[in-house]
Write a structure and sequence with these properties.
The complex is a heterotrimer of chains A (258), B (436) and C (177). Helices cover 43% and strands 4% of the residues of chain A. In chain A, helix 2 packs across helix 6 and helix 5 packs antiparallel against helix 6. By secondary structure, chain C is α+β, with helices and mostly antiparallel strands. Chain C folds into two domains: 39 residues; 132 residues, Rieske Iron-sulfur Protein (3-layer Sandwich), CATH 2.102.10. In chain C, 25% of the residues are buried. Classes of the chains: A mainly alpha (258), B mainly alpha (436), C alpha+beta (177).
């Protein structure tokens, strides 16, 4: 059994080393956010279509004024459970800039089509800053994947606005936020109770809207997550079965040597 | 090498003119392998599997990726979202980079433990170090390609090292970057070189394996093959055993790809590169962290040599030192199994490397233990770096001389067939005379 | 240690076969995504149909539009052009096709603008263009003549200009694809 403990020890050491260094690297911010249970967590996780649809509604009515979602096309919304006709109608309600100028050489805006992407609310970064006190509202397509803490962080941010503690002086136009690094954020609290009137009748508390928008943005960061996990389960089952057969083959092959 | 006679006429015809089939038969079918190899001998084959998979997924990704600063990040997102199975190819490739280093680090530590670097296998070992260097270059450039924040700032920091070279540093750095700062010229050439280097690696791997087949494989006991009794042919014994290793390894790789594809990466790289905004903590990928720690560990000048230059030299030396290891180790015995003192310090080295990795991820001024003001991570890093060099330059030569190795078995077959562990006392001197 | 039995060898061979077969299945399963990843991606397929407002095209006028990145003629035919197309003896055509099988509304001709010879864009859409001897389209590259239904009548092109799937979503909106 000497060889098995050796192998286990070394391999474990390396995976431990890799994991430790990575976890350490990523937790350099050293802020912890309460871990929420999200429907897409775990090996069998899936997105909750109801959450995604409410989140889309919230994004459109609250966030889209300042934040783009440039990697999501309207056709991607079939993932949320909408039909092609519903998406076509939804797209029409959103104005996009046509890629080519018109026959007079002018750039023009038109109602969206299924193959269009969510439009940027500002024509360029400078305009975005000018309209937001010098702060740049980032595109939200990857916000959940690009922040340490992911969905937990985003939820904590959206629900983390409060009065600054004693002795903390807020900068001009800044708000105090418990989750944001540095605790001073240029975005004023985006959510309030009743800010969105949900089509499905769910009560729109801040916590509810934050949950729904976070779920929607998690989907936007990785629309293929469900395909990934479902393929993963099949692949793992195959590989375990394969390994089982391979071990059998190896033992039979070596039977007369040991 | 004997020419084979084949039943199949077509194969025979080709083989008479270009003996590929005889070659394959000799190298991968009949080749005598020590029968006592353990699963640590799988990792070379695993590394080859990773290399081939990285090349295949890389080529497929290169069909969709655009190496221009304004388009690179978007092209990667397009791969993730719109390209059929693009997410799969990307995650396999990105996690494959990490898998490659896990496998190669284990492969290297196997060599360290069992004395595989010792005569007559010194050249195999040195070619291996060359492969490691090529891998590091390839991985570094590959990480720049998505043009995220870490891509950009990692490239900025690493290319900045070259400015430490006296007199010509700035000129070299500008030449490397193709510009005064990291910009499109840099990105485009990194793409070209990232595509090229893996094929150079294939070539060096070929030499590495050819050199191996001159001497044959080492084995856990570190003693030479005495007669055919000690060996089994590569096929079917090691095709079967390697298959098990491959199967288990694919499970690990798949676990990352399908269930934790971003765990080994850094969230900041999902933000497009912003040349005017440095991230709070610039960290390289985990497999570079020990070297990063060594680089940052020298914070003082020595005479006219600046700390920055010393750090770069130390980092380079930490790999270069591996080249001369066969000559640093004075022991006549190969395997740590029979070298108790060497074995102890092997584990110390391993722990030291893990510590260096952890230090590489931390801020140098953070406290290792909260409350203990003087013990910052940069101090720990310096101590770990000193140990690293001390291990190779001081300990290894001394241990070889002062150590009393355990008696070696007379042959490979004896322990495997259960004929008893150590050789009888009478032949201990014969065992000691083993040419290491 | 007993000698390997024939039974053991049989079991070993079976396992080798099983392992090989499962490995083969795995290899093919892995090869499929590698192949499919080269197929057109989602945002390319999203452009699989084009809708255009044709109300500004007058009878006798034609435009060139792109569908799936390729050029197509959309011509609003005059009565004379429609009659000429319908009266042709189909048997005499290089590729026999009736005009009614090539249009959904006889007033509108929607055909590929890629000559079936070697792919040049034939003349005939713009005012003043040479329309060839049959009043349809004329390819200047090697002298292929197409008629008012886009069928090849003279010259080296082997086939009629292909008709893409199309229909009128409304009186004004033509959908191709």
């Amino acid at each position: 059994m000497h060889k098995i403990t050796m192998k286990a020890a070394m391999a474990a050491c390396f995976l431990f080393g890799a994991t430790m260094t990575t976890t350490v690297a990523n937790s350099a911010e050293m802020m912890s956010f309460p871990k929420k249970d999200w429907s897409w967590q775990g090996v069998f996780g899936t997105y909750d279509r109801g959450q995604l649809q409410r989140g889309l509604q919230a994004y459109k009515s609250v966030c889209a004024a300042c934040h783009g979602l440039k990697f999501i096309a309207f056709r991607n919304l079939t993932d949320l459970g909408y039909s092609a006709a519903e998406i076509k109608d939804f797209a029409k309600t959103i104005e996009v800039t046509n890629k080519e100028p018109n026959d007079e050489g002018e750039i023009f805006k038109r109602p969206g089509r299924t193959d269009d992407y969510f439009p940027d609310p500002f024509p360029n970064k400078q305009a975005a800053r000018a309209g937001n006190n010098g702060a740049f509202p980032p595109d939200l397509s990857l916000v959940v994947e690009s922040r340490v803490g992911g969905a937990d962080y985003l939820y904590a941010l959206l629900t983390g606005y409060s009065e600054p503690p004693k002795g903390v002086k807020l900068g001009e136009g800044m708000s105090y936020n418990k989750a944001f690094p540095g605790h001073q954020i240029a975005m004023p609290p985006p959510l309030a109770d009743g800010a969105v009137e949900y089509k499905d009748g769910t009560k729109p508390t801040v916590a509810q809207i934050a949950t729904d928008v976070t779920a929607f943005l998690a989907w936007a960061s990785e629309p293929n997550m469900e395909a990934r996990k479902s393929m993963g389960i099949k692949v793992m089952l195959f590989l375990f079965a394969f390994l089982f057969v391979l071990i059998g083959m190896k033992r039979r092959t070596w039977a007369n040597v040991h | 090498m004997e020419k084979q006679n084949f039943d199949n006429k077509v194969i025979q015809w080709v083989d008479d003119r270009l003996p590929v089939f005889s070659y394959m038969n000799h190298e991968y079918n009949e080749f005598p392998m020590p029968k006592n190899l353990n699963y640590f001998w799988n990792f070379g084959a695993l590394a080859t599997i990773v290399l081939v998979t990285m090349i295949v997924t890389g080529i497929v990704l290169a069909m969709q990726y655009t190496p221009h600063t304004t388009l690179a990040f978007d092209s990667v997102e397009r791969i993730m979202r719109d390209v059929n199975y693009g997410w799969l190819m990307r995650y396999i490739h990105a996690n494959g980079g990490s898998m490659f280093f896990i496998v190669v680090y284990i492969h290297i530590f196997r060599g360290l433990y069992y004395g595989s670097y010792k005569a007559p296998r010194e050249l195999i070992w040195m070619l291996g170090v060359v492969i490691l260097l090529l891998m590091m270059g390839t991985a570094f450039m590959g990480y720049v390609l998505p043009w995220g924040q870490m891509s950009y700032w990692g490239a900025q920091v690493i290319t900045d090292f070259f400015t430490a070279i006296p007199f010509v540093g700035e000129a070299i750095t500008t030449w490397l970057r193709g510009d005064f700062v990291i910009d499109n010229a840099t990105l485009n050439r990194f793409f070209s070189l990232h595509y090229l280097l893996p094929f150079v690696i294939v070539g060096v791997v070929a030499f590495h394996v050819m050199a191996l087949h001159v001497t044959g494989s080492n084995n856990p006991d570190g003693i030479d093959i005495k007669d055919p009794q000690d060996t089994v042919p590569f096929n079917p014994y090691f095709t079967a055993k390697d298959s098990v290793g491959i199967g288990a390894f694919l499970i690990v790789w798949a676990a990352f790809v399908f269930f934790a594809p971003n765990f080994l990466g850094h969230p900041d790289n999902y933000i497009e590169a912003q040349p005017l905004s440095t991230p709070a903590h610039i960290v390289p990928e985990w497999y570079f962290l020990p070297f990063y720690a060594i680089l940052r560990s020298i914070t003082f000048d020595i005479w006219f040599l600046e700390a920055k230059l010393l750090g770069v030299i130390a980092m380079g030396a930490s790999i270069m030192i591996l080249f001369i290891l066969p000559w640093l180790d004075t022991s006549k015995v190969r395997s740590a199994r029979y070298r108790p003192l060497f074995r102890l310090f092997f584990w110390v080295l391993l722990v030291d490397c893990v510590i260096l990795g952890i230090v590489g991820a931390k801020s140098p001024n953070d406290l290792v233990i909260s409350g203990v003001e003087w013990f910052e991570y940069k101090t720990l890093g310096l101590l770990a770096t000193i140990y690293y060099f001390g291990h190779f330059l001081v300990l290894i030569p001394i241990i070889g001389k002062i150590e009393t190795p355990k008696p070696l078995p007379t042959s490979i077959s004896k322990p495997v067939t259960g004929g008893g562990g150590s050789a009888p006392a009478g032949s201990a001197s014969a065992a000691k005379k083993e040419k290491a | 240690m007993a000698e390997p039995h024939a039974e053991d060898e049989e079991r070993r061979d079976f396992l080798q076969l099983a392992a090989g077969a499962i490995g083969g299945v795995g290899a093919v399963a892995f090869a499929w995504p590698l192949v499919d990843t080269m197929s057109p991606s989602a945002e390319v397929l999203a452009l699989s149909s084009t809708e255009l407002d044709v109300s500004s095209i007058k009878p006798g006028q034609a435009i060139i539009v792109k569908w799936r990145k390729r050029p197509y003629f959309v011509r609003r035919r005059t009565k004379i052009e429609i009659d000429a197309a319908e009266k042709v003896d189909i048997a005499s055509l290089r590729e026999p096709e009736a005009d009614k099988d090539r249009v959904t509304k006889s007033e509108w001709l929607v055909v590929s603008a890629s000559c079936t010879h070697f792919g040049c864009i034939p003349k005939g859409a713009k005012v003043g263009d040479d329309r060839g001897e049959f009043g349809g389209f004329f390819c200047p590259c090697h002298g292929s003549h197409y008629d008012t239904s886009g069928r090849i009548r003279k010259g080296p092109a082997p086939r009629n200009l292909p008709v893409p799937p199309h229909n009128f979503v409304s009186d004004k909106i033509l959908k191709i694809g």
